[in-house]
Design brief:
about 140 residues; mainly alpha; elongated
């Protein structure tokens, strides 16, 4: 779980940068920020989300269904916001990405990870599975 927490930091940095670009409301800055977010998604976040979802499925029998539903819903929206074309106007897309990323990371770190890491299978799997950030120097 520690590796996933470390990766959250890089996503929070992206969220901060996205919010700054959205607040500047400069078309070129927004486009550049979106390009960086999409690259971040493909280089790190997609694998990170997949790893979290594998861990969730392993521990599903002991996790609160409402908590799991929230994580899966957040991940689905992040895929739309960060993974490629999105119907939102660029500044609105950046703001939503920033707000959702910040809220999602806070929720996982404070509420969901403590519940998830108490499952014995998750503890073993997270200790032995390299994170995307570790495998892509």
């Amino acid at each position: 779980m520690l590796a996933l927490s470390r990766e959250h930091h890089t996503s929070l940095v992206m969220a901060r940068d996205a919010k700054h670009a959205a607040n500047d409301n400069d078309a070129a800055a927004c486009a550049a920020a979106i390009t960086r977010i999409e690259a971040h998604w493909h280089n790190l976040m997609a694998a990170h989300v997949d790893q979290e979802e594998r861990l969730i499925r392993m521990a599903a029998d002991t996790l609160d269904p409402a908590l799991m539903a929230r994580i899966f819903a957040d991940h689905a929206e992040l895929r739309t916001l960060a993974g490629g074309p999105c119907s939102l106007e660029p500044a609105a897309r950046l703001r939503r990405f920033a707000d959702l990323t910040i809220a999602h990371v806070r929720y996982e770190e404070r509420t969901f990870f403590p519940q998830l890491q108490s499952h014995p299978c998750v503890a073993v799997a997270s200790a032995t599975t390299p994170s995307p950030i570790q495998s892509n120097p």
